[in-house]
Amino acid sequence: MSKKSDKKAKDEQELEEGLEESFPASDAPAVTQPEHREPPRKKR
């Protein structure tokens, strides 16, 4: 193998490892949004 293909293979391996380590963070965002509520009013 040439130095160029060795570097490409190493880069691809590092990318795969990084993706595997960050898997939970790469999940799709939730489709629903939390309900927005008005803050409670102060009693007088």
Entry summary:
This protein is mostly helical. 43% of the residues lie in helices and 0% in strands.
Explain what you see.
There is one protein chain. With 44 residues, the chain is an all-alpha fold. It is 43% helix and 0% strand. It has 1 helix and no strands. The longest helix is centred in the N-terminal third of the chain and has 19 residues, at 3-21. The protein is rod-shaped.
SSE diagram, text form:
Blueprint: H1 3-21
Keywords:
rod-shaped; mainly alpha; single chain
What's the Cα radius of gyration? 24 Å
Given as residue ranges, the uncertain stretches (5+ residues, pLDDT < 50) are none
Helix content: 40-55%
| Strand runs, count | 0
- Overall 3D form: rod-shaped
Number of helix segments? 1
Global mean pLDDT: 77
Q: Based on helices, strands and strand pairing, what is the structural class?
A: mainly alpha
Main sheet summary: none
Order of helices and strands: H
Strand content: under 5%
- Taking the alpha carbons of the first and last residues, their distance comes to 80 Å
